[in-house]
Amino acid sequence: MMLARPGRVLAAFIMAGLCAIGARAFAQEPAAKDYNQRSLEIFEFRKAAKSGPERGREIFYYKCWFCHNEFTKDIPKLEGLFTRANLISGVAVNDANVKDKVRNGGPGMPAYRTVLNDADLSDLTSYLREGCCWNSDSPPPNPRYIAR
Fold first, then answer.
1. Which domain holds residue 79?
2. Using the 8-state DSSP alphabet, how is residue 86 labeled?
3. 59-110 pLDDT, tens digit each
């Protein structure tokens, strides 16, 4: 009769303990989102507002302004987008078509379908519709800055 080596027995106990710890860790309830954490507000684009055009302005700043600003030459400006007759090649300008364009991208424009969800797209289009775009010399105010 052959006895197990002490090293193998120890390894088996360690593996059993790790499996038990891992099972307990996965069985816990997920922690509630703490919106007092600034990093979560930044990650979800909720520093300026919880929803609406103000949140859309924040999304525009982080996702769109880099290309669609007054300094670029060959990229269409988004100011007054909803006053135009066509979005691109005969497609009418409305909320659904603008969301579709941002979601799927196009030639020279990245697709944001994996980055922005439906609520993000709704807030962004509401900002584009209600008064998009600022001059780079006067960007949107920082909501956390308190002037004294």
1. 38-131
2. B
3. 888 888 888 888 888 888 888 888 888 777 677 788 888 899 899 988 888 9
Among 92, 73, 76, smallest CA distance to 84 is for 92
**Is pLDDT at 46 greater than 70 in this prediction?**
no
Give the chain's length: 148
Model confidence, pTM: 0.64
**Residue 139 neighbours by CB distance under 10 Å:** 11
State the CATH number of the domain containing residue 59.
1.10.760.10
Q: Where are the alpha helices (DSSP H) in 28-80?
A: 38-43, 53-59
- A 10 A CB-CB count for 78 gives 18
Whole-angstrom Cα distance, residue 61 to residue 78? 12
**Count of beta carbons in the 10 Å neighbourhood of residue 120:** 20
Answer whether 101's CB lies under 8 Å from 89's CB: no
Report how many domains make up the chain.
1
